[in-house]
User: What shape does this take?
Amino acid sequence: MKRRRAAKPVTKPLGRVASHFNRDGLPKNSYRTQSEAQSAAQLAWTLSGVDLDSYRCDYCFQWHIGKRFRDD
Ligand SMILES: [Zn+2]
Assistant: This one.
């Protein structure tokens, strides 16, 4: 008897789209330019020593900052 995998719903943010959202499922702050995002990342580093990356989002086509992608 063959098993069929149920089709997964595609409504949840997955993969690269998930980078638009924070861990609480809320949209992250977005920046219109890379330099704005980098300024924010630098401010976060200055204030709290957090190492953040700026990246362009494939979901909203603006810029976000976030921790470098790691497993923790
Ligand atoms: Zn986004």
User: Anything to note?
Assistant: Helices lie at 34-48.
